[in-house]
Amino acid sequence: MVLICGVFFGIHWVTYFYALKLSTVAIGMLSIYTYPVITSFLEPVILKTGFQKSHLGLAVLVLTGVYFLVPEVSFKNDHFIAVVVGIISALFYAIRNILMKPKVARYDGSVLMFYQLLVIVVMLSPLLLFSDFLQVKTQLLPIAFLALITTTVGHTLLLMSFKHFSATTASIMSSVQPIYGILLGMLFLNEIPELHTIIGGLLILSAVFIESTRTMRTAKNS
């Protein structure tokens, strides 16, 4: 199961970065962060936990937000393709997190992360034969930061959080990241989100906030 999760994680990565390549940081990250709501739907199905009817309303809210992210429903539009690819990435990420939830209770998060990264290395290694490393040489420091801090440390901590929270709750709690990402995109890349992107993002993050508040309230009362 850990090996399968590694494959899903690898697909998530590839589609995530492809979505970012096609569009802005704001659209790329916001489309990815539909995954908490996707998780809330899939977790009851995969792990046989109770389904919450309120998730239907949240799904409508998220879909409305995604609608605002898409300026034109056409595969000739890079932003539309980015949103579609981003949601595909979110789907694989959600499934991977749900499948990892039972494993975290038995194994250390860093060990699970190591094996998944090993699978990804094997899976993506053939691409080295077709890659151009001229630009990579100038980006070694950012790539190292991405690999060591945001990937190794960040995802290991997320896995460890599964010991204390459901996959849905942990996913929701991590959804503050698009805000950081958009702000950093504005600061370093001068990417100012358009009005429709802001509206879509607010709708998606509102759904996440509502579910987060509801989950925390339920946890306190239980």
Automatic annotation (TrEMBL):
<dbReference type="InterPro" id="IPR000620">
    <property type="entry name" value="EamA_dom"/>
</dbReference>
<feature type="transmembrane region" description="Helical">
    <location>
        <begin position="172"/>
        <end position="189"/>
    </location>
</feature>
<feature type="transmembrane region" description="Helical">
    <location>
        <begin position="140"/>
        <end position="160"/>
    </location>
</feature>
<feature type="transmembrane region" description="Helical">
    <location>
        <begin position="111"/>
        <end position="134"/>
    </location>
</feature>
<feature type="domain" description="EamA">
    <location>
        <begin position="2"/>
        <end position="69"/>
    </location>
</feature>
<dbReference type="InterPro" id="IPR037185">
    <property type="entry name" value="EmrE-like"/>
</dbReference>
<keyword id="KW-0812">Transmembrane</keyword>
<protein>
    <submittedName>
        <fullName>DMT(Drug/metabolite transporter) superfamily permease</fullName>
    </submittedName>
</protein>
<feature type="transmembrane region" description="Helical">
    <location>
        <begin position="56"/>
        <end position="74"/>
    </location>
</feature>
<keyword id="KW-1133">Transmembrane helix</keyword>
<dbReference type="Pfam" id="PF00892">
    <property type="entry name" value="EamA"/>
</dbReference>
<keyword id="KW-0472">Membrane</keyword>
<feature type="domain" description="EamA">
    <location>
        <begin position="81"/>
        <end position="210"/>
    </location>
</feature>
<feature type="transmembrane region" description="Helical">
    <location>
        <begin position="80"/>
        <end position="99"/>
    </location>
</feature>
<dbReference type="GO" id="GO:0016020">
    <property type="term" value="C:membrane"/>
</dbReference>
<feature type="transmembrane region" description="Helical">
    <location>
        <begin position="195"/>
        <end position="213"/>
    </location>
</feature>
